[in-house]
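BUG-193 | component: ligand-complex export | severity: low

The export step for flavin mononucleotide jobs runs without errors, but we want the raw record kept on the ticket for reference. Input record follows.
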Amino acid sequence: MKVLHIDSSIQGSASATRELTHEIVARLKTAHPEAQITYRDLAADVLPHFSQAALTRADELEAARNTQVLEEFLDADVLVIGAPLYNFGIPSQLKAWVDRIVIAGRTFRYTERGPEGLAGGKQVILAVPRGGVYETGSLAEFGESYLKFVLGFVGIRDVSFVRAEGLAFSAQHRENALNEARAVIPVPAALAA
Ligand SMILES: Cc1cc2nc3c(=O)[nH]c(=O)nc-3n(C[C@H](O)[C@H](O)[C@H](O)COP(=O)(O)O)c2cc1C
């Protein structure tokens, strides 16, 4: 089983998301010792905004890096993605990654019946902590909802969320919310070998 672990929080060792993604991956590793883990830290190793040069593959180095990002994604059976809510959406570092994996002809295509995802069969666990609290379907929350949509667009339906809310309320609230989130980490044994 190949696992792609992605972090995008800008808060380094103070990051709640990183705590959760590392816990998720540790549990996966315990349940599946044979799992091969690839780690991509989008805050430490920043991908630039997707650009015309990137789109046209005019810059060889950039094109090679983008190919690597896409192949890493295509190769993974399981993705663990840390997606903190920043200004109601995902961190721009993570958006730069999304821009490199939503590729016509590789991860989706348009057909007469509409768009078709080509990257199905993967399992995704998203760690989505946030400072506030959002109702399901809230019109102010474009992080989790966006990722669910875009992953569905490329064919991935098996998406679980590890949520931790109200982290900005108090230190105690943060600790409680993170403990509650740890308790609902999907049982790794249920994941495909
Ligand atoms: C730049 C920035 C923007 C944020 N914007 C929001 C927001 O729009 N809504 C919210 O509920 N929390 C917001 N927060 C709080 C974070 O979602 C919360 O602190 C979360 O734990 C961040 O994850 P991290 O600790 O892994 O970076 C923001 C935090 C930062 C640093």
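Assignee comment: Attached the raw record above. The pocket of flavin mononucleotide is lined by residues 9, 11, 15-18, 84-88, 129-132, 167-168 (CB under 6 Å).
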